[in-house]
């Protein structure tokens, strides 16, 4: 589409609260985030592992992120999603227009 973007990964060493704060800041700026859950111990997340999806919203009170994938939107408990360490890996990348 002719749009040049810069990207940055959310630090995987952040605790859940700080990672959620990073997500909400980017969403509030109107910028997209890509979520990749490589491995995760929670069985509720199983259908989302080894899969890229777009984070399009959040609910602070419920501690959920809304993702768009499989042609629908899904609310995922962020505490279940953000698991890094012990062999588990989740990554989030955010994008913004180059030079902005």
Sequence-ordered SSE layout with sheet pairings:
Elements: E1 5-9, H1 16-28, E2 33-39, E3 51-59, E4 64-69, E5 72-77, H2 78-81, E6 89-97
Antiparallel strand pairs: 1-6, 2-3, 2-6, 3-4, 4-5
Features:
6 strands
What form results from the Cα inertia axes?
globular
- Helix content, binned percent: 10-25%
The ordered string of helix (H) and strand (E) elements is EHEEEEHE
Strand order of the largest sheet: 1-6-2-3-4-5
Q: How many β-strand runs?
A: 6
Rg, Å, rounded: 13 Å
Regarding quaternary structure, how should these chains be classified? Answer: single chain
Could you list the spans in which at least 5 consecutive residues all have pLDDT below 50?
Answer: none
Question: Alpha-carbon distance between the termini?
Answer: 18 Å
Question: Approximately what portion of the residues adopt beta-strand conformation?
Answer: 35-45%
Q: Kindly report the average pLDDT value.
A: 94
Number of helices: 2
Largest sheet: 6 strands, antiparallel
Secondary-structure-derived class: alpha+beta
């Amino acid at each position: 589409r002719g749009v040049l973007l810069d990207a940055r990964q959310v630090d995987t060493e952040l605790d859940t609260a700080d990672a959620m704060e990073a997500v909400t800041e980017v969403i509030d700026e109107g910028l997209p985030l890509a979520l990749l859950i490589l491995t995760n111990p929670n069985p509720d997340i199983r259908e989302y592992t080894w899969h890229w999806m777009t984070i399009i919203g959040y609910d602070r009170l419920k501690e959920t992120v809304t993702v768009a994938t499989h042609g629908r939107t899904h609310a995922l408990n962020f505490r279940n999603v953000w698991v890094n360490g012990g062999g588990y890996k989740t990554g989030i990348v955010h994008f913004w227009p180059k030079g902005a």
